[in-house]
Amino acid sequence: MNQKATVDVYKQKHPDIDIKLTEVGTTVETAQALTTALAGGKVPDLVLIQGDDLPKFVQQPQNFHDLRGFGAEGIKSDYLDWVISQSTTRNGEILGIPTDVGGMAVAYRTDLFAAAGLPTDREAVGQLWPTWDAFIETGTRYTAATGKAFVDNAATSVFYQAVNQGSQKYYDEAGNLVYDRNPQVKQAFDLALKTIRAGVTAKQSSFSTGWSAAMGQGQFAVLAAPSWMLNAIRMNAPDTNGKWDIATIPGGRGNWGGSYLAIPKRANNPQAAWNYIAETQSPTGQLEHFLVEGSLPTTPSVYQDPRLTSRQEPFFSNAPVGKIYTSSLLGLTPFYIGPDSSAIGQEFLNALTNVEQGAGDPDDAWEAALRNIKTAIGK
After folding, report:
1. Rounded CA gap, 206 and 53, in Å?
2. Residue 354: which of 203, 134, 194 has the closest Cα?
3. Residues 6+ apart with CB under 8 A from 331
4. With pLDDT > 90 as the criterion, what percentage of the chain qualifies?
5. How crowded is the C-beta side of 291, counted as CA atoms within 13 Å?
């Protein structure tokens, strides 16, 4: 998301405000650091919490300021209702303001598609895979023509995308765990196994060192690209500028990701923290950040803004990213995210990665994942 850019802009507008930005590491490491701080350590004035980690913190509202006390009630209608609802307690307390959402699409290499005899126009490419089964079939065609891997991995680029397109995920709407019996989860898991069995993956786990190198070297032609992934592609494969394009995700829509800014109860400067949130996460602030950094706004009032709808990304063959990503959110039926959603998802990913790397048995992968989840969350 490059929050540093937002901080720098804010400091230019408010030279009297001193801001120290600390980036802890991965989302998992950030959540762990926040948990430790809330337990008795020194807390920051502002914290960024990833969406899947948010529910565990919402369950402990005493650790955070109710942002209604600063005026959040008056601006909550600015945000997608299903996004702001995730940071709202059953008692109506608003504990976080959303910073972005992760509308989904597929990034693909036009040069590698051309070499495989596949179309390169983004509309034609999207028509290759109206479904995930068609996506796998396209991968089989690509690998047969080139002898190379089609997609980076099955765990994140297939399972994690498909499971985020369902109307229900690991919990039902009442907050009951259903990860082990939800057919939508099982179907997404089976699609990933089918992708692995098809032999079309590069077996490169997302964000690993090997993944970064393979991306730059053209060892795979496709990866799932929620809106925030575009920066990762630019950073990890800068020499591929202009060789990528973006097509519709199989199934047409979905969301993966998004974060929230919250103010811990023991913050030293809560009003200054709120002032930062209110300005930077306003519809105008989120639009400005999108135009510079590409983080997809959570404020639907800007979705028809000409600056968003006309935005093209030169790195990605001038793809109209504003239109592509906001379209992926339209008509979306959001699912309930629970306190253990992050841990559950990680164990499903681990099980699939083990199979892909040859360490796991595909016939036992589902049951292995369920066993590990029960160990991880005790349920």
Report:
1. 19
2. 203
3. 253
4. 89
5. 14
